[in-house]
Design a protein that fits this description.
By secondary structure, the protein is an all-alpha fold. It has six helices and no strands. It has a single domain, classed as Rhopdopsin 7-helix transmembrane proteins. Helices cover about 75% and strands about 0% of the residues.
Length: about 200
């Protein structure tokens, strides 16, 4: 008989997989349908307003909920000696700042646009920094967890690639912002998919 803990774990895994799939499909479709935006030059936040913007904002909100669940379930299932409160805190912070990224984009051409742009920029930077650092920390802990060690090399590799790409985005002002940011987002989504598969493998054991 399923326990409340196993049920919550199954729901969290399902939500994370749905959030990742929905984000990939929504963002991917908008890259092709928004002919008014250059996908190489424009960051993903430019797609939060205009045609299809509401769908992308919903994808952000769903991802935030999934990250909050990941923060809980990743802490609960980790070995007692390998648990990381900091990793969960970083994921929770990401879950709180990601909706701000989506909401503030809607204030363009409003009297609050200047303030909204400032909050948007700070929230986006916080989201990337906290999420990538949480990915690195959680991957490292799982790599030394006997129940989650299998396949952990892929998670570490994705986390380190995302870390390098994040600093490339920050320190290379001449790079196409849309391309470099979307590569980072793609690495993050791949890592989240990996994390969901790791949790599903653990649930089945």
């Amino acid at each position: 008989m399923p326990t409340p803990r196993s049920t919550m774990m199954s729901l969290s895994i399902g939500l994370l997989l749905i959030a990742v799939t929905n984000f990939v499909l929504t963002a991917g479709v908008l890259q092709w349908t928004r002919a008014d935006l250059d996908p190489i030059a424009m960051p993903l936040s430019a797609y939060l307003i205009g045609p299809g913007g509401a769908w992308l904002r919903c994808a952000y909100y769903l991802m935030a909920a999934a990250l909050a669940c990941l923060a809980w379930v990743s802490y609960r299932v980790s070995d007692l000696r390998k648990r990381s409160c900091l990793a969960s805190v970083l994921l929770v912070v990401t879950a709180l700042t990601l909706p701000l990224v989506a909401i503030t984009a809607t204030y363009e051409h409003s009297p609050q646009e200047t303030l909204a742009r400032l909050i948007h920029s700070m929230a986006a930077q916080t989201t990337f920094l906290c999420l990538v650092m949480g990915m690195l920390l959680l991957s490292s802990r799982w790599r030394h967890d006997p129940r989650l060690r299998h396949g952990s090399r892929a998670g570490m590799l994705l986390a380190w690639l995302a870390f390098a790409q994040m600093w490339l985005l920050a320190l290379w002002p001449g790079a196409p912002p849309g391309l470099t940011q979307k590569v980072l987002i793609a690495l993050i989504l791949l890592w989240l998919g990996w994390a969901a598969l790791q949790l599903e493998r653990l649930r089945r054991t």
